[in-house]
C-alpha cells in the first residue's frame, strides 16, 4: 500500500486496527484525506509523525477515538493545507502551549478537536492566528488558565467548547465579538464574574451553556436580539435577582436551577424542558409546549425556605382577608335588613297617601 505514491484518499476508520502508526504512512506525499478513527491504535504520536512535514497536501486528518498517547508533535503545525484536524478521544497528554511552539502555520484550519484527553496547562493565545477556524473543541481536559481575550479575534467561529476544564477568571468581553458563533459551552469550570450584557451581540447563538461555574451578579439580558437561541443553561451558579423573558423566543431547553433568581418568563413558543428551582416563578406567564412534556426539577435545599415563604405568605394573607370579610358580612347583615324594612314601610306609606 505504501507504494501508492499517487494515493489521495485513505479511509481505514471503524476497524480493529491496532499497534502503532507506521512511519511509511507519511511517505504518501499526495495524500489529502486520511481517516483512521475508531480503531485501537496505540503508541506515541510523536514517533509516528516524525516525517509528517512531507505531507504538504494533507487537508483532512482524523485519528479520533484511538489510544494514541504522548504529546502532540511540533511537526503537525507545519502542515499548511490542513483544514480539519480531529484527535479527540485519545490519551494524549502534556501542555498544549508547548506542543504548539511559538508559531502556527495552520492558517486555513477550519475544524480543530482536541477534546476528551488529558491536556494540561494554559489555553494557547496563538490560537488567535487561526482566522478561518469555525469549530474549536478543547473540552474535557485539565486546562487551568483564564480564557484569553484574543479568542475574540477568531471571528469565523461557529462552535467554541471549553467545557469540563478548570478554567478561571471572567468571561472576556471580547467573546461578544464572535458574531457567527452558534454554540458557546463554558460549563463545568471555575469561571467567575458576571454575564456581560453584550453577550446579546451574539445574534446567531443557538446554544449557550454556562452551567456549574461561579458566575454571580444580575442577568441583564433581555433576549431581544437572541432570536435563534434554543438552549440556555445557567444552572448551578450564584446569579441573583430577577430574570425576565419579555420577547418571543425559540427556547426549547431552559435551566436556571440552583441560583438565587426570581423568574418571570413568558412568550415561550416551543419550550420542551425547563428546570428553574428558583426563589419565585410566575407560572401564569409560562406557556407549555405542544411537543412534549415539561419538566421542573425539585427545589434545592437552600431555596426551600424562600419557596415556602413566597407560597404560604400570600395564602395566609388571603385567608385572613376572607375571614375578616365573612365576619363583617355577618355583623352588618341585621342592619342591612332593618334599613331595607324601613325603606319598604316608607314606600308603602307614600303609596297610601297618593291613593288618598
UniProtKB/TrEMBL annotation:
This is Leucine-rich repeat-containing N-terminal plant-type domain-containing protein. The chain crosses the membrane at residues 306-328. It comes from Lactuca saligna (Willowleaf lettuce). Its main location: membrane. SUPFAM superfamilies: L domain-like (SSF52058). One of its GO terms (cellular component) is plasma membrane. The keyword Transferase does not apply. GO terms for biological process: defense response; response to other organism. SMART domains: LRR_SD22, LRR_TYP. Pfam families: LRR_1, LRR_4, LRR_8. InterPro entries: Leu-rich_rpt (IPR001611), Leu-rich_rpt_4 (IPR025875), Leu-rich_rpt_typical-subtyp (IPR003591), LRR_dom_sf (IPR032675), StomDev_PlantInt_Reg (IPR052941). It is found in: Cell membrane.
Amino acid at each position: 500500500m505504501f507504494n501508492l505514491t499517487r494515493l489521495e484518499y485513505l479511509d481505514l476508520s471503524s476497524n480493529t486496527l491496532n499497534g502503532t502508526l507506521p512511519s511509511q504512512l507519511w511517505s504518501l506525499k499526495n495524500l489529502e484525506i486520511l481517516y483512521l478513527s475508531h480503531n485501537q491504535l496505540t503508541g506515541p504520536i510523536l514517533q509516528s509523525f516524525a516525517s509528517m512535514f512531507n505531507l504538504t497536501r494533507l487537508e483532512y486528518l482524523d485519528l479520533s477515538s484511538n489510544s494514541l498517547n504522548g504529546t502532540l508533535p511540533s511537526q503537525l503545525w507545519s502542515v499548511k493545507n490542513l483544514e480539519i484536524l480531529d484527535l479527540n478521544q485519545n490519551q494524549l497528554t502534556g501542555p498544549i502551549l508547548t506542543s504548539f511552539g511559538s508559531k502556527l502555520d495552520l492558517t486555513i484550519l477550519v475544524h480543530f478537536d482536541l477534546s476528551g484527553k488529558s491536556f494540561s496547562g494554559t489555553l494557547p493565545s496563538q490560537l488567535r492566528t487561526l482566522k478561518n477556524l469555525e469549530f474549536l473543541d478543547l473540552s474535557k481536559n485539565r486546562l487551568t488558565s483564564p480564557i484569553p481575550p484574543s479568542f475574540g479575534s477568531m471571528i469565523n467561529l461557529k462552535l467554541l467548547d471549553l467545557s469540563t476544564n478548570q478554567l478561571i477568571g471572567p468571561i472576556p468581553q471580547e467573546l461578544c465579538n464572535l458574531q457567527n458563533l452558534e454554540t458557546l459551552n463554558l460549563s463545568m469550570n471555575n469561571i467567575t464574574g458576571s454575564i456581560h450584557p453584550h453577550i446579546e451581540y451574539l445574534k446567531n447563538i443557538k446554544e449557550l451553556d454556562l452551567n456549574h461555574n461561579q458566575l454571580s451578579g444580575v442577568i441583564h439580558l433581555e433576549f431581544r436580539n437572541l432570536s435563534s437561541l434554543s438552549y440556555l443553561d445557567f444552572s448551578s451558579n450564584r446569579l441573583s435577582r430577577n430574570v425576565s423573558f419579555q420577547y418571543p423566543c425559540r427556547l426549547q431547553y431552559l435551566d436556571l436551577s440552583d441560583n438565587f433568581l426570581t423568574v418571570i418568563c413568558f412568550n415561550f413558543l416551543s419550550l420542551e424542558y425547563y428546570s428553574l428551582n428558583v426563589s419565585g416563578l410566575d407560572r401564569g406567564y409560562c406557556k407549555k409546549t405542544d411537543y412534549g412534556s415539561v419538566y421542573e426539577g425539585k427545589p434545592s435545599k437552600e431555596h426551600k425556605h424562600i419557596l415556602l415563604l413566597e407560597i404560604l405568605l400570600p395564602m395566609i394573607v388571603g385567608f385572613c382577608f376572607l375571614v375578616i370579610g365573612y365576619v363583617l358580612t355577618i355583623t352588618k347583615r341585621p342592619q342591612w335588613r332593618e334599613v331595607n324594612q324601613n325603606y319598604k314601610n316608607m314606600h308603602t306609606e307614600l303609596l297610601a297617601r297618593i291613593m288618598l
